[in-house]
Amino acid sequence: EVARHVGASAVVPVDGEGNVYLVKQFRAPIDQVLLEIPAGKLDFKGEDRLEAARRELQEETGLTARSWTHLSDIVTTPGFSDELISLYLARDLEAGESHPDEDEFLNLVKVPLAELVSMIARGEVTDAKTICAVLLAEKAVNG
């Protein structure tokens, strides 16, 4: 069996002080609240992935960014799904108003990038896209 997926984009938003903005949300399939980077499905196959990342960042956090870096594309679970997530680093952030989807109940959390990397190492962050993107972003930010 194969689960077909339209694809997604995800964003590591890092402010000028080195803080990352994340969302806490309940994930029904695993019956847990997870700490994750802002992310979401493409609206349609072939949608510009950077535009989807911009949309999800603004919808989920209210933030916009002037600087964008493509970090990587990842296949999440190739054993049963064709989902591809594009990962981005967003910098030069500007605050605004969030507009989550009607079925999204999100809490915004700000964590220093170095602490977030430590949380990943301690197993406190388990979302795969978040782990991949944050570790790649840390390399991009700190060299």
Describe the structure.
The longest helix has 15 residues. The strands form two sheets. A four-stranded mixed sheet has the order 4-1-6-5, with helices on both faces. The protein has a three-stranded antiparallel sheet with strand order 3-2-7. With 143 residues, the protein is an alpha+beta fold. 30% of the residues are buried. The mean pLDDT is 93. Helix 2 crosses helix 3. A hairpin with an 8-residue loop joins strand 5 and strand 6.
Secondary structure elements and pairings:
Layout: E1 8-13, E2 19-27, E3 32-36, E4 39-41, H1 49-61, E5 64-75, E6 84-94, E7 107-112, H2 113-121, H3 128-142
Parallel strand pairs: 1-6
Antiparallel strand pairs: 1-4, 2-3, 2-7, 5-6
Uncertain stretches: none
Widest sheet: strand ordering: 4-1-6-5
**Topology as a string of helices (H) and strands (E):** EEEEHEEEHH
Strand content: 35-45%
Can you summarize the main beta sheet? 4 strands, mixed
- DSSP helix fraction: 25-40%
**Count of DSSP strands:** 7
Radius of gyration: 14 Å
**Tally of DSSP helical segments:** 3
Based on CA inertia axes, which overall geometry fits?
A: globular
Q: Name the average pLDDT.
A: 93
Terminus-to-terminus distance: 41 Å
Q: What class do helices, strands and sheet pairing give? A: alpha+beta
